[in-house]
Amino acid sequence: MSLPYFISRRISKNKTGSFSTVINKIAVVSIAVALAALICTFMILKGFEDTIKQKIYSFSGHLIISKYTLSTSFENSSIVVEDSLMNGLRALPGVDYLQTYAYKAGLLKTNDEVQGVILKGLDQSFDTTAFAMHMVDGHFPKFPKEGYGTEVALSTKIANYLSLKVGDEVLVFFIQNPPRYRNLKITGIYETGLEDFDEKVILGDINLVRRINGWGENTIGGIEVFLNDPETMDEAETMVFEATSSDLYVDKVSDKYVQIFDWLRLLNRNVVIFFSLVLFVAAFNMVSILLILIMERTQMIGVLKSLGAANGLLRRIFFVNGLGLIVRGVFWGNLLGLSFCWIQDRYKIIPLDPANYYMNHVPIQFDPTAVILLNLFVIVMTAIALFIPLSVISRINPIKSIRFD
User: Fold this and answer.
1) Which domain holds residue 362?
2) 37 and 145 together in one domain
């Protein structure tokens, strides 16, 4: 056992209730609270990002291919899709799968209310498994191989406004000349928490849109491209654009819903500021506490110096002492932070307003890599901060310190 470690252990074993014991506990608590706050912040932010992005990606894909047009209408210009185009897109590196879609504006009418909606026509390539997380009642519409389906899924907001439920039938009038209508059966109700979808989009069969518009079986409104890694969206956009004809437009979902992604980037910036402030406070606390411990042990430092102890040895003694407090604080910080995140993830004790946060509870996304990096960063930064009060040791005069009271 090294001498600095031995002396550090001896001075750490103070009587219960002594001033040093209280100071040590304050140091451990300050580190623990700071680390727990950082762990919770990063996991909540990661949960927000992953949950919101997953909601958008499951509804719109990562890249959207549509007919190039200056119109801002929800109803797309039609695309006659060919096998060569679809096979070429599927062969691109990083592409997971493709979905075709078509929009059609209409009015849902009940006996008492009328609601404007956008029917999003989908086919059997739609990933119902990924969308299942949004279904709150019933099941996703089934699309027949022949003809067209009349089953639809509504959002909870539309269903509540029109007082509809699973199993009901509703009349939809499609806006065109001449107007056409269909009787649709509600088989499912979904909720994403995203107003752009929940306020106006209903999900149905793309063949119904084709039938209303008089399109052929190879005509669609657009193609949604899903990637293996959303982080490669910029590179994939360039590849997809080069693989399509000049009359087609490729749009990133992050550009189409730029307000939501800007909000997420703003959250990232706030977390960086919060992280810096918490780390500064934790480091400042350690500097203050170690300085107090040094002042309390001034007589001991004077005695050791008079016996020939070098400043370097004394610095190592208090550095080991401070490092021990940091390690204990990190242990309790991990226990506190991870326990809170586990409880929130399992029991969802903190609710949110979906109208403002796109979800009804605080989300948690466990990220072991982030936890390890946070631990290392907190330990390193607070350990570096310990060198500030250690510089005081070299200024302590042995004669004056022995008589220090």
Assistant:
1) 3-55+261-402
2) no
